[in-house]
Amino acid sequence: MDSDATEREQRNRLFNAVNTAIAYLLQAEVDQFESALWRSMGVLADAVDADRVRLWRNFRKDGKLYCTQIYEWSEGAVPSQGTPITIEVPYDENLPGWEEKLTKNECINSLVRTMIPKEVVRFSSQGILSILIVPVFLRNEFWGFVGFNDCHRERLFTSNEETILRSASLLITNALMRNEMTQQLTTTMEKAFAASRAKSQFLSNMSHEIRTPLNAIVGMTAIGKSARDIEKKDYAFEKIEIASTHLLGVINDVLDVSKIEANKFDLSNVEFNFEKLIKKVVSVILFRINEKRQTFKLHLDPNIPEILFGDDQRLAQVITNLLANATKFTPESGSVSLHVRLLNKEKTSCKLQVAVTDTGIGISPEQQAQLFMPFKQAENDTARKFGGTGLGLAISKRIVELMNGDIWIESTLGMGATFTFSVKLGCPADDERTLVDMERTERVRMLAVDDDPETLEFFKVVAQRMNLTCDTAVDCQEALKLLNCHERYDICFIDPIMDGIGFSRLVTATQTEKTALIIVSAHDWNSIEQAAKAADVDGFLQKPLFISDVAECINNHVGMQKNAERDAKQKRKESFQGRRILLAEDMEINREIVLTLLESTHIEIDCACDGAEAVRLFSATPDRYDMIFMDIQMPGMDGVEATRHIRAFGSAKAEIIPIVAMTANVFREEVELYLKAGMNDHIGKPFDYNELLAKLKLYLP
């Protein structure tokens, strides 16, 4: 066989090994990653006839460079390394000359007996005869290295082996970083849904960005494997390197955003409605709970102020993370509950305690001890399954601490868990409630029928807050007795599980005056809609119940609302007739959404399809516009650059016109960049009418 044929055969063998190794890593679930990594390293070792493969990661301590072995594949090596992992090996003392050579991206390919005496002693004691050390660089920094050992013969690894093992090492490191990032990303995504839909979309995009280069790696490996000429194989190999580099960039960008370092993490302080925050969190979690047919209970202390001051997104992030974990580790038909109570209230601050309880698998004392450690992940499958920690709980702990609170866990293995945390938030000096919106000469009477005592107590609280009369019944028989004792009820809330539909028919048939019938259920409305409508049911509320939803339902079905006066006043507040804004947005659908949402405000809107057009329109007639909505990511000139051009235009209007960023990037670091570029504010995507209107009211009084 000629040398070219031998080289092609060797490349084919190596490409096959790379393809198989990457396939193992791509197909592995997070909890199977270590075994997949072991198999992948073994495949590469077999391809180059190596007896041991070890993966080392660098770190610095006290200004010195160290390396720690994090994974090892070993088969047939004598003596066997076994399970111990070597940690904190200083380069200057134990590996003289390695740092200088490896940082130049040079491999160490040598016979052990020809190395310096210190290295000969070190490696001979491990039975190593030949060694190949391949440096790994991430973001142009020396990340670590992969070592390939031959314990059976003396030889130098070929140039083909050295070249392809460079990329194979990079791919293994890619997979390792991807696995770590996936664990962090999963935890972050669970919290991010409640923080904002924009952040959720961002993380979904990152998932797509990660898989795209991985697909390129697999595809080009297959092309290189089937190619007959060396040039085609080299082309495929180059594309694999390009995709690998891109993947590393994406992973590191996401990690830079996701990783919270204590000395760089600050909270915002905004006004928010606490009940609305909880509603958003619950709406995100409910679909998971319903999928597992779990029971969910919610209790909100009615004494909690309606308006609070603090970082609502970070608070939602903590609650969502705890609820997501509770749901995940609770079996089907189990229960999850969220209890929030007011610990104390001062003039302009209050302290809340939030507890998430589940009937799940519980957490052992050993696992509890490591639960809130940052970036700590248990190393075996059992620990990961039953309580291994990721980034989510570490972030939650930091958020709670920054809110002057504490977080802790009470749990027994196999008997569920309760995560509890406290936070201190600001609140108005006077807590004015706005639940009543009705005019009636007589007192409104309501009836609540439910077998859950907490639900009945909830309705009593609502009635008290709205100055209504409320009777309660634990079943339909008791409710019928109440109906016979009283002439009428204005509104009735009933759970359909207790034959609510049949009871509704009875109420309709026996009451001389119309009673508003409201079905209250944890189940989806679609499952009972037809029967409910046939029973003349007037409305539906889904559990868990919120005071504002019940109050709105009472106002809508019972109260004689001051609609005309209120609506006229509201319309005057929401009219911006005679004002004009400039909308810079490259996506036609987004322009259409803004135009449609703001149509009722009578504001005039000019549209620009990119930053350059926005600058041109403004520069032509600066006094024409009262405000600018500026998208950030646009082709050509983006929103940040366009803002800088407008601010530098030189006219008086250019200096003062409000410019509001429109973006899904709602992370604090990004927002700070927009403000430094000259923007006044930002609004998140997808667009919300109330948020758009709030910005108009703020900047166009």
Give the key terms.
701 residues; 25 helices; Helix Hairpins; globular; Beta-Lactamase; five-stranded mixed β-sheet; 5 domains; alpha/beta; Heat Shock Protein 90
Kindly describe this structure.
With 701 residues, this protein is α/β, with parallel strands linked by helices. It folds into five domains: 26-31 and 159-259, Orthogonal Bundle (Helix Hairpins), CATH 1.10.287; 49-156, GAF domain (Beta-Lactamase, 2-Layer Sandwich); 275-426, Histidine kinase-like ATPase, C-terminal domain (Heat Shock Protein 90, 2-Layer Sandwich); 445-561, Response regulator (Rossmann fold, 3-Layer(aba) Sandwich); 571-699, Response regulator (Rossmann fold, 3-Layer(aba) Sandwich). It is 47% helix and 21% strand. It has 25 helices and 23 strands. It has a six-stranded antiparallel beta sheet with strand order 3-2-1-6-5-4. It has a five-stranded mixed beta sheet with strand order 8-10-11-13-12. Helix 17 (529-534) links the parallel strand 17 and strand 18 (539-542). Helix 2 runs antiparallel to helix 6 (159-195), helix 9 (274-291) packs parallel to helix 10 and helix 21 (611-620) packs parallel to helix 22 (639-647). The model is unreliable at 252-257, 374-390 and 561-569 (pLDDT under 50).
